[in-house]
Amino acid sequence: MKEVNTMLKEVQMTFRVDPELRAEFSNATALADRPAAQVLRELMRAYVIESNARAHSPANDLVSPAESRRREKAVNFARACVGLEGFKPSEEAQVNARRFINGEIDLSEFVQMKPYAEGSANSR
């Protein structure tokens, strides 16, 4: 029976990188006393894991903490603008705002026009 060599073959990648970035990366890895190739392999593995996780997650998966903060700032700004005009968002709008901030709905679902808001001339 023929033995099969199970050792993985290594491949080489060649890519272009800005000279300044390469120098900064080399300095950073030298300061950490780590080979640049080792750091790149770790970054590649982390990227693959993250990419696979995104690919296998539901389409409406929760947003990152940074995206959630960005959305909350935008919602708070919109609430302030609406308040300055003398309106108050309805309870449904408040619930949808929270759902948007949490990533449960996307922007197009959140900004659907509603005919009336509390405090508007048409709802009195």
Structural features, described:
This protein is mainly alpha-helical and 124 residues long. Helix content is 56%, strand content 0%. The protein contains five helices and no strands. The protein has helices at residues 19-31, 36-55, 65-84, 91-102, 107-110. Helix 3 runs antiparallel to helix 4. The chain is elongated. The termini are far apart.
The total beta strand count reads: 0
Q: Which whole number gives the mean pLDDT?
A: 82
User: What is the molecular shape?
Assistant: elongated
Helix residue percentage: 55-70%
Structure summarized in a few sentences:
The protein is mainly alpha-helical and 124 residues long.
Keywords:
124 residues; mainly alpha; elongated
How do the strands and helices of this protein lay out in sequence?
Elements: H1 19-31, H2 36-55, H3 65-84, H4 91-102, H5 107-110
Helix pairs in contact: 3-4
